[in-house]
Design brief:
The protein is of the alpha+beta class. It has helices at 36-45, 61-64, 68-80, and strands at 23-28, 49-54. The longest helix has 13 residues, at 68-80. The chain is flat.
Length: 81
């Protein structure tokens, strides 16, 4: 992959560092843009990260899939606590 994103849109971001807020990571199981191991890797570097998996969800599942309202509520609850 080198120092550029797969799509060549800029330098790879640095590790998240010391985040001090809960971080919801939403991942659809049918996502063809981000592999599940990438989400798990991100969660491993972010304290208090919670992976929310959406069964059969696509890359845009938080906005387009039927349970999207529930997903948004769950993510909002994590960040407003």
């Amino acid at each position: 992959m080198g120092s550029r994103y797969r799509h060549g849109i800029g330098p790879r971001p640095k590790r998240p560092g010391k985040l001090r807020v809960p971080v919801p990571l939403v991942h659809g199981t049918a996502d063809t843009d981000v592999r599940p191991d990438q989400t798990e890797n991100a969660a491993g570097h972010i304290p208090d990260a919670e992976v929310i998996r959406v069964r059969n969800g696509t890359h845009l599942c938080m906005w387009t899939d039927p349970p999207s309202a529930d997903i948004k509520e769950r993510a909002a609850a994590l960040t407003s606590a």
